[in-house]
Batch of 2 targets.
Target 1
Amino acid sequence: MTPDFTFRLLATDGKARRGEISMPRGAVRTPAFMPVGTGGTVKAMYMDQVRDLGSDIILGNTYHLMLRPGAERVARLGGLHEFGRWQGPILTDSGGFQVMSLSNLRKLTEKGVTFRSHIDGVAYEMTPERSIEIQGLLDSDIQMQLDECTALPATPEEIERAMELSLRWAERCKTAFGVQPGKAMFGIVQGGDIAALRVRSAQALSALDLKGYAVGGLAVGEPQAVMLDMLDITCPELPADKPRYLMGVGTPDDILKSVARGIDMFDCVMPTRAGRHGLAYTRRGKVNLKNARHAEDPRPLDEESDCPASRDYSRAYLHHLVRSQEALGAMLLTWNNLAYYQSLMQDIRGAIEARNFEAQAAEISEGWARGDIPAL
């Protein structure tokens, strides 16, 4: 481990990058998928399980943690690592996306945003400085700037206004963050689906010389093709020697195609949320355990998997748990899904190192296209 935050590229294959982020709390192998620990926990999982699946880093949510149990309380209890018993690196988002999407009666100004909690209606103010302060109280290792994420579709005028505001907030966040050895603050590229605005945002953020850069405002309602076009435009404008993080993405196919365009880090609630709703991700594609065809199927989800949830429990049993709304069903399918995502990331890293990423990606996609094994 290093006393400071560093990133180095270990291999490339086309635009796909294999790298490593080093921080005092541990190394993050990239491309990396970060399980989402919204409220200080990865839902339906023990932290030991998350670590053992190969997760080097998890994500915590500033908005939810500031509302409950409160950032100051987490700080008094030793920070998020001690509070949640996760000793590896943690990235916290700024809370901006949730403020914009979940909160009622919000009011946006140059200073920041005032809003009411979706839990109890209590009024709060979130400014760039307060967002960084909260993330510091949580003691996260990578902190995100506060930005305004505009849902698509939106007017060009609205997208430009939000992008320019986010740039000004990035400068304020950098000042508030200051110098914190071993930690990093990332800027967030905005600009919606307008190429010129994405380029402008990326170039302005690059001039701030931050330790990493995220691409935000994608996977918010636009088609995948639009997201990929924006990555094709944005990634070349970002420093090659800094990590690139695509926020809130996504499906395994999204990840595969985004790595091919130079993205290093991902997060998404999809694998955990799907697990709680009876949907499994596998190398043969998605499997809906609610379907009656699994009711008497003794086979596992994936007999070749290293994950006990995937290998040792029958589809019939998983179907029973899901249909009965047993908590164990959500636990096992979440375990399976995170195992699959981390296995996918491991395969991607290995393929980039071996310089056969394109062929490996095609093979993975073909497995999804062939689909699940027929029912008995």
Target 2
Amino acid sequence: MSALKVTGLVKNFDNVVAVDGLDLQVNTGEFYVLLGPSASGKTTAFRTICGIETPSAGRIEFDGVDKTNAPMRDRGVAMVFQTFALYPHLTVRDNLRFPLTAQKLDANEIERRIAEIAELLKLSQTLDRKPGTASGGEQQRIAIGRALIQKPELLLLDEPLTNLDAKLRHDTRAEFKRIQRERGITIIYATPDELEALTMGDRIGILRDGKMVQVGTPYELYDRPDSQFVARMVGSPPMNFLEGHRKGSDSQASISIGLGEYSGGKWGKALGDFAVGEELLFGVRPHDIKLVGTGESYDGPTFNAKIRLTEPLGDVVILDLVANDCRLKMVLPEEKAVLFNVGDELTCGFQISATHVFAKETGTVIG
């Protein structure tokens, strides 16, 4: 418990369609991430799944049972919001106790659960303090504890780390994964942060304008994006997109971009479906651009580029390059990047098998 299946979910607010035919399937015990930009429908989907909002259309099932119109208390769902929503006048202990009093549990059972959750979330030393005296990370754990103490079958986490600093976000991500493993709970985690999605999700569903546009493992979404939107959402820094157009004959179609003319790859045959001269987008990830001429064997196409800017990130450096009026980024290990300066010229290359081509008009991947 608990598997979730959402079919054709629609939620309208007057003339605004917040969720538009959403299909979602989450397996029991899975850590599933909903990834999407602001206003993509993540929060509305959550509020509808847990019963705060009534769907305009569609079906919501828990373990095969229709719960579309069931009250919140009958869904076995808990939700942690972006804002912690703690009661400032109550102690941490009383904040944890509050959702259990409505269930009319035995006093001994309530205290047992409080002690268990406090131990799990490392809150034992803060139980008699007010939330306002706790750190941001502790307040986050209190909010999580108030959800977990109800023993939900499904936990919805709506951008819960937005208000934390970078170190706390890193530590709390690990905390979520630990809790999920130890409790065997089903978690759906909503975020606009692709790093959170890639590091935490067993699977990731990508939302755009209230619709699910692609679902897959982190590796599947990174290596085989269905669209330019997904390719841009997944991966840091984002994929490079270079404008080009179709060339060649139908039997040997190619794409011409500022760096050269290329054929083959997983998109080679599909290019024949486009008219000669039709505009396309050529995509290559910064991590797939290689430095050529450093002693390592290389047999792919090459191009010359000048360094415009460097962005040191510790063990790696992002290089902002310009080549034949094409702007693109590449990533180098720090020990290689320190050998170059802004203004230097490099010989770079990439394997055609690592590239992607998209229809410019629709953004759909080719091949």
